[in-house]
Amino acid sequence: MKLTTKTFFAFLLGVVLVTSGCSNKSQVKEETSSKNKAAFQIVDAGSISLKNIRGIGYPGNDTALYIAGNDGLKLYKDKKWYKTTENQHDYIGFQAVETGFIASGHPQKGSGYKDPLGLIKSVNKGETIQKLAFYDKANFHFTAASYSGNGLYVIGEAQSDEVSLGVNYSTDNGDTWKKSALKNFNADSMGMMAVHPTNGNTMAMSTRSGIYFSNDNGNTMKLITGPIMVTALTFSGDSILFSSVENEKILLKTIAPSTGEQADLIIPFLDYDNPITYLAVNPKNTNQLAFTTYKNDLYESTDGGKTWNNLLKDGKNK
């Protein structure tokens, strides 16, 4: 059995590499309508039914696990599910950071925001958003951000005046952007990126031929695994937590980029056509980690991966 093209597209992006630069001056602005500001609440969600999971993470300004769906944020905390009552944007490329979260995507209809959102940030659980860059100009399926460091990354899917095709990075909160040179990058696709939690210059990328690692914003890359298909990755301290598909098995491992040393984590059995799509580690407690799958299953561990709780099955909690 082989993964379908549709499954590949869910987590890998094939793009042609080009050598042009990119810069963008974007005024950081926080916006919300008076209607949304008055109505915004985080309430008990009851039953959950998600058609598309866009990302997961543990923002530093909350104690909940955040799940970004096509209809806004869902939060899991103290064995209960919550949702927002307004600003139910389609948060594509969701990234949890110390002060909140960063994302791209499309606004909720009637919210007053232009489409696409570009790259935005929220520091109050989605009640308002700050425009970091590319507002009304671009949407990014692949974004990455350092949890507390200065490092933002996006993959431009098309060449434009605003963003270059390929990996673009910013070290000043999105004010200016450069294109990563990707020296020694030999993969035939680009995929999910991850950034070191405190050092924004250090990043990694999953591809169909392994994990590429960089200490200089993606300008120089190094393959740190064998030629395996890696579907998701995230940093856990200085190590990388990643999922691969090998010998028709879904695996979860850690790797130390400096030495290449790997260790396996035991996870519940996953069908070969249900690979892991998103991974999250809580930087404030690295024993707390979570992953989602292609079929919208969600698992969380609070003991470093020794045991797992199935929070969603096919996107549903009941």
From TrEMBL:
Gene3D superfamilies with a match to the protein in the record: YVTN repeat-like/Quinoprotein amine dehydrogenase (2.130.10.10)
Coiled coil segments of this chain: none
InterPro entries: Glycosyl_F510_1955-like, WD40/YVTN_repeat-like_dom_sf
Domain of life: Bacteria
Name by which UniProt lists this protein: Beta-barrel assembly machine subunit BamC
Organism: Neobacillus bataviensis
Organism lineage: Bacteria, Bacillati, Bacillota, Bacilli, Bacillales
